Amino acid sequence: MGDAKTPLRRVILGTGGTIAGRASRAGDNVGYVAGQVSAQDLMAAVPPLAGWPLEVEQVAQIDSKDMGFAVWQRLAERVAHHLAREDVAGVVITHGTDTLEETAFFLHTVLRPGKPVVLTCAMRPSTALVPDGPQNLLDAVTVAGDPRARGVLAVCAGGVHAAEHVTKVHSYRVDAFDSGDAGPLGCVEEGVVRWFHAPSAQSQAEVVDARRLEAVMQAGAMPRVAWMTSHADADGTQVRAMLAYGAIHPEAMPHGMVVAGTGNGTLHQALEAALLAAQAQGVQVRRGTRCARGRVVPGAAGALEDTHGLAPAKARIALALELMGL
Hints:
- The chain has 326 residues and is α/β, with parallel strands linked by helices.
- It has eight helices and 16 strands.
- Helix 3 runs parallel beside helix 8 (312-323).
- The mean pLDDT is 94.
């Protein structure tokens, strides 16, 4: 492949996940332990990568269901460090599928990188009869070296997705990710990226947004933002309980709340009343939809601000960063 001859290197940052998982017997695709194989060993298991100008660094080794702000801070710092190097074309992050979309959106919002940062994953552990991780890793490294690639991307099952759109939509299949109405940016075919839409250009002159990164690195924690869903028989018990507990334990008081509404962001009247009361007490509230596709389409001015097209998981991060002044 032509990319193997490029003088610019790509850096692989490992965080664990299913791609690094092991099961006690081959063929067990669900009874495995995530985050058992090092990023170095993952790379060594992909023969086509031999001889490529690559570096590997282990940032974390966790099941991505346990992802949190401390790991995001370390990951953001290491990504920024490597992207600042003139000899690095891009960064690849091996990650679990459960929270991949959240990590991708966090890095996209905080760093706004001009070079490509490509997250990849697997739905089957490394011990599977037919593991999907090796091909995904090879595809991600290919995308990270493509001259048209930029910003934070996700690569899985041959698809290339933008961080702001990608969502996990299936609990088991290897093609578990989708970009909703936006669709994928492209795909990888036999070591070549075929772009359907070019990734958005970054406006700032810096490799990453240094001001936003510095603010994140100085923070001890992200502001607490709760996430709940409206449904039949929903009431405001959860909201009132969080506020009551927070009054006794101020460190647990939510600074914001995101609610996944039904349909076009509609809310059960009892839940809406509780959220309005929370908003009156200074809690920032954002209203999205639990629908897999579409967004809240604003109509008449509502009392609760919508999530501006973000899925609830990403809206929670966006609101937390907004509360940090970013």
